[in-house]
Amino acid sequence: MKAVLLGYGTVGKGVEKLVSTVDGLDLKAVFVLPEFENLPYFSNDGEGLVTDPEVDIVFECLSGTEPSNTLIRRALEAGKHVITSNKATVAPNLEDYVKLAAENGGSIQIEASVAGGIPFLDAVLKLQKLEDLNGFEGIFNGTSNYILDQMQKEGQDLDTALKAAQAMGYAEADPTNDVEGFDVWYKTVITNMLAYKTENGGLRQPLGISRITPEDIALAKKEGKVIRHISRSLQKDGKYASVIAPAFLDKDEYLANVPSNYNAQLIYADSFDKIGLFGQGAGQMATAQAMLANAIDTLENSERPILLEKAMQPDDSLIQETWLVRSGKDLSSLPAARVKEGSYWLIGPAGADVIDQVQALDPEAMIALWR
Ligand code: HSE
Predict the structure, then answer these.
(1) In DSSP terms, which residues pair with 58 in a beta bridge?
(2) Which CATH number goes with the domain that contains 174?
């Protein structure tokens, strides 16, 4: 089969390296934006490449939503098998992509868009075949985990650790998406859809790690906790709830022991209780291999179908947690609020809508899960 590659950044270059190792797969051309270097093998004609009758597979590794979204649509309309790592374009458009693939005889495969090199979505798609999943939680952003790890183990400040993560190629082009949780927001939107076989019912705004200070690190140490950035999602009786936030975890918990820039996930269902995955959720070759694994599924005609047959709605009350808040404001009107010490409050157990209530009283508060 012949393939084209859209995008020649970190992941795209990794895909180029790996394509030549797969029997039966040839890379015909690479689409790059006009401002980039134009070598013979490169083209600025994205629409021409993705509708080329000789081409079967389109690897999409551009960042952002355009021209990615337009090119993915054109490719699917032309019946191609599209393999993408681009969570920002998959999250808001997956329903359309699935329909276009079904109507035109192609496919959409998105393993690399969530958790990079870990076959997490593959596991989700396999495990939801038999029974409804009860939920999932995990560390989905290598940059945030690396920063928190460096802050807690080495006493580094956030900016120094972020610069190191950028130098290692983990961070997004705009690292705001990493430290404010938007990268994990896209990944959680996608995983909710696949895990619960539903159209996108929405997801509350994330809480990132940008408000974690040395004071918070000191509290965690004193209390035997480790701070991680997690996404937690539950589903019950046709509804789901998701929260993305820093979490003060007991130091013996599985997710507390995920070091450096690694990611890890837990998937929950009645039959197996929980299944854990661990690995590299970012980086050139880890992410590229996930895309090539999808391509091999296409070569073998064994792609996992994505079914979005339900229209589920979020229900914040499903997530009942104790929340740690650092705020100088009086929060005593909130559900089961008590002062922990100094400017720290413990609130709940309460649903995720308590986040809105805290932010109404103090928009600058540091809010985290307390386990
Ligand atoms: N910036 C992301 C991370 C890349 O650090 O995990 C993978 O999505």
Answers:
(1) 4, 82
(2) 3.30.360.10
By three-state DSSP, how is residue 283 classified?
A: coil
Is the link from the previous residue into 206 a cis peptide, with omega within 30 of 0?
Answer: no
Q: Is the pLDDT of residue 169 over 90?
A: no
| Ligand 1 pocket mutation pick from 113, 144, 170 by most atoms within 8 angstroms of CB | 170
Nearest-CA residue for ligand 1 atom 4 is: 282
> For position 33, what pLDDT does the model report?
86
Which residue ranges have their beta carbon within 6 Å of ligand 1? Answer: 116, 141-143, 170-172, 178, 183, 281-282
187 catalytic residue (yes or no): yes
Average pLDDT over residues 110-123: 98
CA–CA gap between residue 253 and residue 316 (Å, rounded) = 24
The structural domain count of the chain equals 3
14 and 284 Cβ atoms separated by less than 8 Å: yes
Spacing, Cα 178 to ligand 1 middle (Å)? 7
Range of the domain at 363: 320-371
The count of residues in the chain is: 371
Instruction: Give DSSP secondary structure letters for 292-354.
Output: HHHHHHHHTT-PPP----B--EE-GGG--EEEEEE-SS--TTSTT-EEEETTEEEEEEE-TTH
CA of 19 to the centre of ligand 1 (A): 22
Q: Model's pTM, two decimal places? A: 0.97
Q: Is the pLDDT of residue 136 over 80?
A: yes
Among 80, 109, 138, residue at a domain's last position: 109
